[in-house]
Description:
The protein is about 40% helix and about 20% strand. The protein is an alpha/beta fold and about 475 residues long.
Amino acid sequence: MADHDRPATVHNHIGGTETAARSGATLPLVDPATGRVHGSAALSGPEDVDAACRAAERALPGWAATTPAERQTALLRLADALERHADAVAAAEVTDTGKPRALFLADELPAVVDVLRYFAGAARNLPGAAAMEYTSGRTSLLRREPVGVCAQITPWNYPLMMAVWKIAPALAAGNTVVLKPSETTPSSTVLLARLAAEHLPPGVLNVVCGGRDTGRDLVAHPAVRLVAVTGSVRAGQQVAAAAAADLKRLHLELGGNAPVLIHEDADPAATAEELVPLAFYNAGQDCTAATRILVHHRIHDAFRDAFAERAARQVTGDPDAPDTDFGPLNSAAQLASVRRLLDGLPDHAEVVTGGSALDRPGFFHSATVVAGVGQDDEIVRSEVFGPVVTLQPFTDEAEAFEMANAVPQGLAASVWTRDHDRAMRASRALHTGIVWVNTHGTTVSEMPHGGVRHSGYGSDLSLTGLLDYTQVKHVML
Length: 477
């Protein structure tokens, strides 16, 4: 296993080999649980990005010509490799993110492996229209072909998971990839590329580390035909503007601000018990986190008290401690962003529990519940991306829908009720890409994950996600 151990310096992975940035420049990597530098990563410049894109371009004809069965075999072997090297993968992910090791191994890694195995099978099941004579004497048929070289940019909240959500459908469809992970969390992604190099031809999967300038260089590279980004709304807007110059295809999974609608027929205590772990999982650094809770006024106070009591029992701390529910925020900058929103609360807002950073090394913050907020307050309209939940009362169903939809984001929502008709009305009325009923946050490989409005467009996961990485050609005989 020594050859797969994570190095102190995380290098680029280009053309099947690891290499330092040509300038020799690096960025420090900080352990969020301690606040101390634990390593460094390559800071890629235009020459590094060009080398990766050219490697992907050279590999494209051969990989696109492989059969779906051959691509399936490669993805299945990569899934098996991740399982075999689970401890090394966890070490890379946990040191960069501070998330609890046990939860990563129990929840996230199995989900990552499942995504690879799903797309391995989906590669052999692309839909197609039947050949048909739509005009006399000529037969039409459709070919689904890979788009080409795909540039992919992933965030720091789920480094390995988001990398696999991106590369699995792209590779299954016959594309080649150049992926840039977040500058704060590249380790598990580069380890993924190292493992993949044993099962993929050189240049099919390339990883370049670096910051925003590296991402800009990647988006602008002429070899790239599709750009896929998971990140903030602002990042998506900047990428869309840059990609427009060369008419590159776009796949944007951007910010969320999920409303949770709890109706008067829901059990306040039971609903609070189920929602708290979902709201604070990964320190709330999740675009679908249950962070904006709207509660019918008749049960608002009972729910508030039950939710706050349960939230106060959430344990944040050492990633290796067995009782840790969530770890630190990813960086000093993200902790400062959360603090700015909480320090700027209006006078009518009430911090029911939590509300403070922890007095210890690292970037830890307590589980926080804020009530009494208004619809126009910044903490309601903005994606906090931290362990902070807001509570608002509503009087009827129409008001709940209006409040839920009155933010720019539209990724996910949930409704909690015993009334089937009400749940179905909510599924139509909520302007989001995902609606959960009496649950929240669950994803499955077979169903699409994507949003509307400022949450972007395009889908991860599912056959829909696979088709996003193909283009259609009409052939007439």
